[in-house]
């Protein structure tokens, strides 16, 4: 199943100039602005994550699917993975002149959304995350999917891509030949691959781990109490990339937070449990502010 087939990606593509290069995004629908932030991984794009959800959410919102820098669509900036994604989101919202937005973020995108909500708490009305937020409490870190991601990035082969894709889902039938070919083409583009290695290759992973071990480092998950936005954490029960115990800290520390767990579902809840996930998220985002 090719998620980008739901909409004509060319017809929805926009771009906006910022002081750190051009950001590209897809726009659909009218209404309050809803920024949608993709995750990381080989061949990822915003539309590969969220194209299948736009038909529903564009009925209520002006959906803005941002292509984060470093993944081959928007201009690369050389910033780190997490701070770069959050900074790009703020530049994007600034460039469009949006005072307040809702954010949906998958994995990396969810963490970026949380960082924005912490840095500019009045800017984010509601925040929805899909896996990835928090830290491993009981499970080993990094998770299986993260190890496969790093392995592919260091030495990309088709077999390694297939192994990583299968770690993202509960149902292996979700991974089609069309998806594999589409991801392989994007992931092995020379510029995209070079950028990916600076973001989540083994050397980048080692640098980030060393920085996180520094005595003066404060991890983002220790500051989640600063989020003012109403927050919905969604998680696939069978996530092999970011196991469910990661949700425990954000569930206890974000002041106004809900957790919804989807059974028989991996890391891509918005794809694998599409209708159930959309129903929960739509209800959360459209609920009256005082309710």
TrEMBL record:
Q: Which GO terms describe its molecular function?
A: hydrolase activity
Protein name in UniProt? 2-hydroxy-6-oxo-6-phenylhexa-2,4-dienoate hydrolase
One GO location term (cellular component): membrane
SUPFAM superfamilies this protein is in?
A: alpha/beta-Hydrolases
Highest taxon in the source lineage: Bacteria
Q: Which organism is it from?
A: Nocardioides simplex (Arthrobacter simplex)
Q: Which UniProt keywords apply?
A: Hydrolase
Pfam family of this protein, just one? Abhydrolase_1
Q: Which InterPro entries does the annotation name?
A: AB_hydrolase_1 (IPR000073), AB_hydrolase_fold (IPR029058), AB_hydrolase_sf (IPR050266), Epox_hydrolase-like (IPR000639)
